[in-house]
Amino acid sequence: MRILVLVNSHLPLIGGRELVQHNLAIQYQNFGHEVCVAGMSGWWVDRKLRFPYPVLRIPQIG
Predict the structure, then answer these.
(1) How many independent structural domains does the chain possess?
(2) CA 53 vs CA 56, 61, 62: distances in Å
């Protein structure tokens, strides 16, 4: 199954929501699903971080 996780904040910000999203994406992959995390641009400032799943930045509409 292909799963898209929509977020408005993600790691490296640390909070309950960010950790749950990250752990869900990893567990979905462990079950054999194809996972992608997507959210508005601007929330992911440190683009040097690498995750075991693709992270897409959706451009904001002004």
Answers:
(1) 1
(2) 10, 25, 28
